[in-house]
Amino acid sequence: MNAERSRIERRLEVDAGEEWTATGAPLPKSMLADVQDVVTTVADLLSPEDIPDLRHSADFHAASAALASVSERLAHLLSGDGELVQQQIRGLHPFVDALVKTQAVRSAVEQARNTACIAAFNDVRDALRQLQSIRSVEQLVHKAAEAICTLGFDRSQIAWAEDGYWITERIFGTQEQAWLDELAEVGRADPQVLHSELYESELIRRRRPLLVSHARPDSPHVHRTFIKLGRVRSYVAAPLMTEGTVAGFIHADRYFQRCNVDEVDREILATFADGFGYLLQRTVLRERIEGLRTRLTTLTESMVRSDVGVLQDGATAGSSGLNWRPTLLAVGSVKLERLPKANLASTLTDREQDIIDLMAKGATNAEIARRLVISEGTAKWHVKNVLRKLNAANRAAAVSYWLRQNSR
């Protein structure tokens, strides 16, 4: 862990947290050349300090703002309202030509931006189509984090909203995955409380996507650990809906591009989250049905073996003495059938009771994670909380206490 933690330390040393000037999708290189050509031409005609500098902001926002500024400046001079004297402008034709060219490039930039938006939403459709054939919830969540990074983002996080906590499931990036894996582990080891000031709490209440343009590590509205250790400048987030409730949320940014996210990014992620929520719900239902089918088959085989054994002993089928109790395992938001809560109702949350029910059946952390559709790290966190709340030294002691309390 020390070696892995040094990745966070090295990242903090390399990235001092300076602000970025670029925002949103980058401008195509060929179009950037046209914009720079117009800006350079106007700068030669006017005072260079009056012209926006595009050297560090090669995105649609910067290009549109620069062209709007140039166009306004030229129009102002040609309208006669400016203090430009005829002798100083060396004729009007260069200015008229520059204005015409500026307007043409400005129109082309807007058209390219609209085309890029359409292409981005088509990419969302393609990404969701690639996920449709996945039959495992665990694999679906795993692949969804990667799919988000085909939509213009380069980091994504999928997390659950559970028992008032932000539980990180996976963080994926197009680079430096070991650093991001450590970030996810930090998030699971010390989950963020979903208090009322947090932006994500508002996201859960309103069920709407959000754009955080300036994420500051000292703000009470953000997950301070992720903002600081992940060097987050801005991010977009969208609710993950299943069965009509917010099961969690998805985050994304453009960290490795050194670029802030914008409103278009927010809508792209929201569209993906909507479609992914339906896929997740369908896959949960499929796993639930397959689990019931498997357990029914096992139960039937067990009954047949028991009846055969009784008949071989000379007993009648009706006196076989079968004493079985079918247990319905839940996936996702469906709860486990559990023993009466007794006086532990105010001690353990519903999810923690799901956890100890599975512990009582001998399930390992990996099995608990698979059955409840959470990561193994999240399962370990829940087990630790159960042991702490029951004041138990180990799993066996916790299960023993739980069974004694519920047998009263």
Radius of gyration: 29 Å
Mean pLDDT: 81
* Global shape: elongated
- Tell me how many strands there are: 6
Fraction in helix = 55-70%
Briefly note the CATH topology name of the largest domain: Beta-Lactamase
Query: What pattern of helices and strands is seen along the backbone?
Result: HHHHHHEEHEHEHEEHHHHH
> Which homologous superfamily in CATH is the superfamily of the largest domain?
GAF domain
CATH architectural category of the largest domain: 2-Layer Sandwich
Q: What is the overall number of helices?
A: 14
The parts where pLDDT drops under 50 for at least 5 residues are 315-342
Distance between the termini: 44 Å
Q: What about the largest sheet?
A: 6 strands, antiparallel
How many domains, as an integer?
Answer: 3
Q: What structural class do the secondary elements suggest?
A: alpha+beta
CATH hierarchy class name of the largest domain: Alpha Beta
Which strand order spans the largest sheet, edge to edge or round the barrel?
A: 3-2-1-6-5-4
β content, as a range? 5-15%
Descriptive overview:
- This protein is α+β, with helices and mostly antiparallel strands and 408 residues long.
- The chain has 3 domains: 24-124, no CATH class; 132-284, 2-Layer Sandwich (Beta-Lactamase); 335-406, Orthogonal Bundle (Arc Repressor Mutant, subunit A).
- Helices cover 55% and strands 10% of the residues.
- A 6-stranded antiparallel beta sheet has the order 3-2-1-6-5-4, with helices on both faces.
- Helix 3 packs antiparallel against helix 5 (93-131).
- The model is unreliable at 315-342 (pLDDT under 50).
